[in-house]
From TrEMBL:
<dbReference type="InterPro" id="IPR005467">
    <property type="entry name" value="His_kinase_dom"/>
</dbReference>
<dbReference type="Pfam" id="PF02518">
    <property type="entry name" value="HATPase_c"/>
</dbReference>
<keyword id="KW-0547">Nucleotide-binding</keyword>
<keyword id="KW-1133">Transmembrane helix</keyword>
<keyword id="KW-0418">Kinase</keyword>
<keyword id="KW-0067">ATP-binding</keyword>
<dbReference type="GO" id="GO:0005886">
    <property type="term" value="C:plasma membrane"/>
</dbReference>
<dbReference type="InterPro" id="IPR036890">
    <property type="entry name" value="HATPase_C_sf"/>
</dbReference>
<dbReference type="GO" id="GO:0016036">
    <property type="term" value="P:cellular response to phosphate starvation"/>
</dbReference>
<keyword id="KW-0472">Membrane</keyword>
<keyword id="KW-1003">Cell membrane</keyword>
<keyword id="KW-0808">Transferase</keyword>
<protein>
    <recommendedName>
        <fullName>histidine kinase</fullName>
        <ecNumber>2.7.13.3</ecNumber>
    </recommendedName>
</protein>
<dbReference type="GO" id="GO:0000155">
    <property type="term" value="F:phosphorelay sensor kinase activity"/>
</dbReference>
<dbReference type="GO" id="GO:0005524">
    <property type="term" value="F:ATP binding"/>
</dbReference>
<keyword id="KW-0812">Transmembrane</keyword>
<dbReference type="GO" id="GO:0004721">
    <property type="term" value="F:phosphoprotein phosphatase activity"/>
</dbReference>
Length: 269
């Protein structure tokens, strides 16, 4: 054993035996070794994915930094607004990297409590107001003081990613995004709808896949394929359901469902 540089391959050096005990032992070793190799392969893939994301993120984060430098050297009247917009882009990119790094251990960082949807949405809109002005995006919120049990910070990130996607794929003359919450039999349904360019039929089934940018993302060169993937992953961790529907050239809807839980109704008293 000590002379092997890969001890998990020791079964390959065992003498063949017809004894049932030896065969069972060999089979146990074989299955155990296969599980180890598969786990190593999985970890290597995850590390590769993370490296690729960080490399892409570094490229993305350099763009608003360059813009800030140019704005600081410029004496235009709307200089401060441009700087605010670049800083918002930078903050969103940094936040995405942070949530991506934490996404496998959400349970260590979230606090589930009764949260007012409208307050979360207004925070998202306020944070991105300069980007919305730049992209000529207006917003409509219809939540009627509906509350859900969730983590406000993580929910804010999820809705922020959906808003950023709507701005990426808006029409040339601007756009509109609406947030509508309603109570249904299975819980609270939040529909986020934009009137942008929509999703091609062939891309719809893959929009939540990691790294998938689709034909729109490739054409516009603005997509990393991480935003909606993170939304899906975080929703799963938080016990939420997320889905999307779209008509190319007309609209895209992202739907969040906050399921009813018996223990939550007890918490409300």
């Amino acid at each position: 054993m000590e002379g092997l540089d890969q001890p998990y391959l020791m079964q390959e050096f065992m003498d063949h035996s017809w004894r049932l005990e030896d065969q069972l032992y060999r089979e146990i070793l074989r299955r155990s070794n296969r599980a180890v190799v598969e786990r190593i392969y999985q970890l290597e893939n995850e590390q590769q994915d993370y490296r690729e994301f960080i490399e892409g993120w570094i490229h993305e984060v350099k763009l608003p930094i360059t813009g800030i430098r140019l704005a600081c050297h410029n004496q235009e009247q709307d200089n401060s607004r441009r700087i605010e917009r670049y800083l918002t882009e930078l903050d969103n990119d940094v936040e995405q990297a942070l949530f991506y790094a934490r996404s496998d251990q959400v349970y260590k960082d979230y606090i589930i409590k009764e949260t007012e949807l409208e307050a979360v949405i207004l925070n998202v809109l306020k944070k991105n107001k300069y980007l919305m002005i730049q992209n000529q995006m207006s917003a409509k919120v219809e939540c009627d003081r509906i509350t859900v049990f969730s983590d406000g910070k993580w929910l804010e990130f999820i809705l922020g990613q959906i808003l950023l996607n709507a701005m990426k794929y808006k029409n040339e003359n601007g756009g509109m995004i609406s947030f509508q919450a309603e109570t249904i039999n299975s819980g609270i349904k939040l529909t986020v709808r934009d009137n942008g360019i929509g999703i091609p039929e062939g891309d719809k089934a893959r929009i939540f896949e990691k790294g998938f940018t689709g034909s729109n993302g490739r054409n516009r060169g603005k997509s990393t394929g991480i935003g909606l993937y993170l939304c899906k992953k975080l929703c799963n961790k938080l016990g939420l359901e997320i889905s999307a529907q779209s008509q190319e050239g007309e609209f895209t809807e992202v739907i969040l469902l906050f399921p009813k839980h018996s223990f939550l109704s007890k918490l409300k008293g």
